[in-house]
């Protein structure tokens, strides 16, 4: 009986590197593309959902004090999902974790359809909550796009910027969906929100399998807790103002007799939320996170001032557009800020997103006050 022993020889290459350690790969590029598609579809669903929830809540709530509860439930679901999303990436991998989130979004959209056809306020809140969970998972796509051991500025900007497509097609798709569901108001948008998450599910299910278990000593890691406190606080303030004003905008516009222009205003807002990342992509080597964040803060202040004095479509549209651009720059800037010295741990990323979405929830609860 002979035994064959593997002996190194001239010309033989032994790979001792982790996958992706030699730089960008075709698998990495395909992952970024799939995450960009999934994120864009998730944002499309979010446009439809947030177009519905403030006004449907106003119509179905048993009392005026509960009118913003469905809108707030959306952000409550997003906030609660952020930390589990980050941990599930390690436990089950990107494909399973993100597919779970997209599945909950599809189910939430169908619950919304049920709520709107049967006039059930409780179901409206539940559907909004599940859609929010899906949104919390999809927000983590921008972190997951960063390559192992890399800063990933381009990947973050590509994934974020892809959502600008959602703002372009949302008005046409929304009008078509509503025409199919006529005369039931908002039902077509709810069904379209569910279908968008089905598309996101297909994209995330096609992701190459990747699970990274991290052993991080926070005390010795340069990207520890202290490194993310300031950008997290700034980002949270931006999210609070964005959700507060955008929850108030549809209600204020209806009060001014401008209900037909609500969806168009929200579409402009969403385009402004994600288009800046495509502009920054062209200047990615010159991107300075603190500068981006500062400019975003100025736009947010301007948006709030214009909203306070608006009574016409033009005023609300300009306010919503500046609000979206300011939020975009603040969110992008803080995301690049926490990634500038390498990848933080999953726990830190989850805590960062949880803080942003918790602030968004507080803004949603305050929306009626802003209106």
UniProtKB/TrEMBL annotation:
SUPFAM superfamilies: MFS general substrate transporter. The chain crosses the membrane at residues 32-56, 68-89, 96-115, 121-141, 153-174, 186-207, 228-254, 266-283, 290-310, 316-338, 350-370. Keywords: Membrane, Transmembrane, Transmembrane helix. The keyword Cell membrane does not apply. InterPro entries: MFS_trans_sf. This is MFS transporter.
């Amino acid at each position: 009986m002979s035994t064959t022993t593997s002996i190194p020889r001239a010309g033989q290459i032994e790979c001792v590197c982790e996958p992706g350690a030699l730089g960008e790969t075709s698998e990495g590029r395909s992952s970024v593309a799939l995450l960009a598609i999934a994120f864009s579809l998730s944002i499309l669903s979010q446009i439809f959902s947030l177009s519905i929830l403030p006004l449907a809540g106003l119509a179905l709530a048993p009392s005026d004090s509960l009118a913003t509860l469905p809108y707030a439930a959306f952000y409550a679901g997003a906030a609660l999902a952020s930390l589990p999303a980050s941990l599930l990436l390690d436990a089950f991998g990107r494909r399973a974790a993100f597919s779970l989130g997209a599945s909950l979004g599809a189910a939430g959209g169908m619950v919304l359809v049920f709520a709107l056809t049967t006039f059930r306020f409780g179901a409206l809140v539940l559907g909004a909550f599940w859609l929010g969970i899906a949104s919390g998972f999809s927000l983590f796509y921008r972190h997951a796009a960063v390559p192992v051991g890399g800063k990933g500025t381009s990947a973050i900007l590509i994934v974020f910027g892809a959502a600008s497509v959602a703002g372009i097609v949302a008005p046409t798709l929304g009008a078509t969906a509503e025409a199919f569901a006529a005369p039931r108001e908002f039902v077509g948008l709810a069904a379209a929100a569910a279908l968008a998450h089905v598309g996101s599910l297909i994209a995330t299910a096609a992701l190459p399998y990747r699970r990274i278990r991290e052993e991080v000593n926070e005390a010795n890691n340069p990207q520890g807790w202290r490194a993310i406190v300031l950008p997290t606080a700034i980002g949270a303030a931006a999210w609070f103002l964005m959700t507060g004003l955008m929850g108030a905008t549809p209600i204020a516009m209806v009060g001014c007799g401008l209900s037909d222009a609500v969806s168009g205003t929200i579409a402009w807002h969403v385009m402004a939320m994600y288009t800046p990342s495509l502009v920054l992509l062209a200047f990615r080597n010159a991107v300075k996170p603190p500068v981006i964040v500062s400019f975003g803060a100025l736009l947010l202040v301007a948006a709030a001032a214009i909203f306070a004095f608006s009574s016409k479509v033009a005023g609300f549209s300009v306010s919503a557009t500046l609000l979206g651009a300011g939020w975009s720059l603040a969110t992008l800037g803080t995301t690049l800020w926490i990634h500038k010295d390498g990848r933080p741990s999953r726990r830190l990323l989850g805590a960062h997103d949880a803080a942003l979405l918790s602030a968004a929830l507080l803004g949603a609860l305050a929306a009626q006050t802003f209106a």
